[in-house]
């Protein structure tokens, strides 16, 4: 009993008793400063709190199934633990450790003698060569050739020399328009004042050339140029859904439903707010797009279903240098 | 104990002389010298949290149907990649914490680098002999922007898909080689194939981080070789004498403390402040997009530029040569980084003709032209950054979007010039103020001395 008490007392004295270790007598490097027991207490308390927060983390982790806001408590415990221990170290650095401000010389600006030696070594190393230029040229040439050889496999990454596919779309004359769940669109489904998304039947919907927006406009609203006059079917027009600016999907349809009905109806891309006019063939009304929206010619079959009457009147999606390769194939 | 360990290591590595020097390496004391450190610590947090995320992420674009715990998405088609990020956010224990911490750390990382860059720029710290350190830093900033972009693209939610579509359009818009380059990267027309995600993944978790780490090592190595710059806050600090706190014991606990506090704040943010709730956006399909989409802040300047550029393609005979996204998405960042990279050369060639060696920093007022041009440039980029968020202003304050865009299209050219002129004037005035203060002090001193001597007489 008394031994246990002695042990406790001696531990307490060792832990809490004040005193500084005696260093051998010698000239000091780090100047001697008085102790700061108050700040020591702050640092020790911060470390203790940090440890408590750290212990909370595995507890929350283990109980995660039973407590709400698991993520918040996990973050709180781990974050606080880091911050508290970090604060303890900052306190240590600022108040408990001697922070001498000392000065010393900046490193030399340059080393002229070493520079000279380096130059001499390099110059003398090639002294034995009698046709130095030829040798260096061969060395450079071989290096370059090897470099080209090593870079060649990069070509396998993609179809570098075949950019034609960028222009292709799945749309053909007579191809049915279907919705996201492959149900065919009928002309009577399309109402004014809203817009619909359609795809070519059986095609890959992710293909940039696939998706189109359908809108119905009052027939007196159209101001189509002559070559596009036959593109709408029964007041319904279809445009590529992919913005010609940066390739985002056009998912906004601006249609003022009551007075004032200005500005006029427009298709808008939410990425950079390129705005296109569905009444005149998809011209750019506002925003950065530099090219009009490609228009898809439509027809209505005998059962009222919407079908394509050909391909778009221009290349789909964002432009590139070679967009001029496009050859229009308008509906006959 | 300590003696034994030191001897053991010295006998086996011969490190004692090196270590002795390293322990007494001096750090000049100024709060602004810690910005780069914060970036370093955010990078460490990124590597640690990113490694954890990589244990659960899948880069497959295989189409799967969601049956997980998040009810609103049940039954939806999505890629395995998006599915795995949903799982990290909902099912992996502590997964959401780590994901959000990773995201916050990326935002803080780039912010710290930017602030560090501003400090270095406006104090002239990039001057000889530290031009290489500066260029390495710029390189890291560029790679970090790409790295961050790849990071949020990998989640394959609706927003990341829209971001990738824009990236594709910008790549496509590069003159002559654009289409070939885009086809090469995406392995075909957008949205590319399975291979594209593998490529993003290896670039994001290995290629770019390794590159950043290598540049970082060179950057820090150069700092150590030439030592840190310092302000002339006391007469002891000169071009030849550095004054500072030694690495050990003074600086070590402070730096370690800053590391832990940085990591701690990031974990607190990751736990308490939601960022990029990908389950709300849903999976990406090329035919979907959402209004109010905003990228991470560090790409805001690019979306702003893309939105501000008026409808204009470079065309010949009706054929597009250089499409619109090139101006805002490629040329604009090229100009900004080109300016930053060439500025040290340009400054000494045309402005200061100063080819000297500089260990002492300028205060912004000491170099009025640098401060003016730098602030003008900063205003220009900042205004374009703000333009990227104007749609939010429309939503919140009901100001007409089109009008605001037109105002900005003009203002970004006018305001930076005004800011530059004002900055220049303020610098000159501050200099004059200091000069007259110095003269006043000197006169006072002289008068006092005179009074004293007359007293004696």
Please summarize what this structure is:
The complex is a heterodimer of chains A (332) and B (457). Chain A has 332 residues and is α+β, with helices and mostly antiparallel strands.
Can you offer a commentary on this structure?
The complex is a heterodimer of chains A (332) and B (457). Chain A is an alpha+beta fold. Chain A contains 5 helices and 12 strands. Among the domains of chain A are: 65 residues; 164 residues, Rieske [2Fe-2S] iron-sulphur domain (Rieske Iron-sulfur Protein). In chain A, helix 2 packs antiparallel against helix 3. The longest helix of chain A has 27 residues. The termini of chain A are far apart. The C terminus of chain A is likely disordered. Chain B is mostly helical and 457 residues long. Chain B folds into 2 domains: 339 residues, Cytochrome Bc1 Complex, Chain C (Up-down Bundle), CATH 1.20.810; 95 residues. In chain B, 68% of the residues lie in helices and 5% in strands. Chain B contains 16 helices and 6 strands. In chain B, strands 1-4 form a two-stranded antiparallel ribbon. In chain B, strands 2-3 form a two-stranded antiparallel ribbon. In chain B, helix 3 runs antiparallel to helix 5, helix 6 runs antiparallel to helix 9 and helix 14 packs antiparallel against helix 16. Strand 1 of chain A pairs antiparallel with strand 4 of chain B, so a sheet runs across the interface.
Describe the structure using short key phrases:
heterodimer; A: 332 residues; alpha+beta; Rieske Iron-sulfur Protein; five-stranded antiparallel beta sheet; four-stranded antiparallel beta sheet; flat; disordered C terminus; B: 457 residues; mainly alpha; Cytochrome Bc1 Complex, Chain C; 2 domains; two-stranded antiparallel sheet; two-stranded antiparallel ribbon; 16 helices; 6 strands; 68% helix; 5% strand; globular
Could you name the CATH topology of the domain at 169-332 in chain A? Rieske Iron-sulfur Protein
What is the average per-residue confidence, as pLDDT of chain B, rounded to a whole number?
Answer: 94
What is the fourth-level CATH superfamily of the domain at 169-332 in chain A?
A: Rieske [2Fe-2S] iron-sulphur domain
The topology string of helices and strands of chain B comes to HHEHEEHHHHHHEHHHEEHHHH
CATH class label of the domain at 169-332 in chain A:
Mainly Beta
Query: In CATH terms, what is the architecture of the domain at 169-332 in chain A?
Result: 3-layer Sandwich
Q: Please state the oligomeric state of the protein chains shown.
A: heterodimer
**Could you name the ranges of chain B where pLDDT drops below 50 across 5 or more consecutive residues?**
none
